[in-house]
Amino acid sequence: MGNISVFVDAGYLFKQGSLALFGPAKGGPGRSWGRHEITFDPEPFMQKLSAWLCQRYPEDQLFRTYWYDGAKSGVPSTEQLAVASLSFVKLRLGRINSAGVQKGVDTLMVRDLMVLSQERSIHRAIVLSGDEDIREGIEYAQDRGVRVAVLGIQAAGGSSQSHELLREADEAILLPLEILEASVTRTPVVEPVSIATPAAIGSAAEPGTGTASTYREAAVIFAKQWIETAPKSSLQALLNGRPTVPGVVDGPLLRHVCAACNVRTIDDESRREIRIAFWGVIDRTV
Question: How far apart are CA 181 and CA 277, in angstroms?
């Protein structure tokens, strides 16, 4: 019996997983889905992945799952906090630069492969990624007796992984689609509800004409629809991070209020009132 560790490149998982489930996003052939367009529930993903690996390698036991992702300014999102809260899961965060490009994630994965194999902590590594840049870590682990499987997601137009990466691995396996289906869904679109404002009665509203009451009303509508569709793990992560509303929720909230009230901008004091109204719904519901 030996220990297995799983190394998950979240960027690869979300990009290829959403393409496998939903096909290309609108906007052109091969366009991938944005993070804001999909919802991920980490708990069923981890449970089903663990069960599948235990069936595939019955003589081994799962040691730990390492989750690699990027974060702006190194601050974890609600979704990332939900991942970190799971048992035997270690969150590793790289950075997202000003151009929106993820940096440092491959380095973190290579580092962990090296350390765990050097310390003889694992007997087998399962690497969910498609990036050739992690080959060095795989080679290092193999040289120290670790068997490395590269786990991929089926691509409609061929392989979603580097051919060099696949050749380096001891085995190349595909993630069962049902594991993705249990955890990755399209993010529900909260349709803006038109709310009458003084300026909207009899004429088109001008930018900045929303009122405190219409802002709160729109925030309440958004909060009710959000809490009906959010995974339990996302709700728990939201509660753990209060009083801050994380960007993955705050951005859609403010955009909804703008659309509902027919305004282009919202001042800081009104934003504060909107977030208070949002939290009011959450507190009354949970």
Answer: 33
Task: Determine the Cα–Cα distance for residues 45 and 182; give it in Å rounded to an integer.
Answer: 7
What is the CATH topology of the domain spanning 3-185? Rossmann fold (3.40.50)
φ, ψ for residue 130, nearest 5 deg? -130, 10
Asked if 215 and 56 touch (Cβ cutoff 8 Å), the reply is no
Which strand (E) or helix (H) includes residue 270?
helix 268-285
Element (H or E) spanning 63, and its range?
strand 61-71
Helix axes 268-285, 232-240, angle to 10 degrees: 120
The pLDDT profile of the chain, 286 residues, written as one tens digit per residue, is: 799 999 999 999 999 999 999 888 876 666 788 887 888 889 999 999 999 999 999 999 999 999 999 988 778 887 888 899 899 999 999 988 777 777 889 999 999 999 999 999 999 999 999 989 999 999 999 999 999 999 999 876 667 899 999 999 999 999 999 999 989 988 765 555 555 444 443 344 444 457 888 898 999 998 888 888 777 777 777 887 777 887 778 888 888 888 888 888 888 888 889 999 999 998 888 7
Output phi, psi for 95, to 5 deg. Answer: -120, 155
Enclosing H/E stretch for 95: strand 89-96
pTM of this structure:
0.72
Q: Where are the domains of the chain?
A: 3-185, 188-285
Bridge partner list, 71: 95
List CB contacts of 24: < 8 A, sequence separation 6 or more. Answer: 30, 31, 32
Strand partners, 127: 7, 150
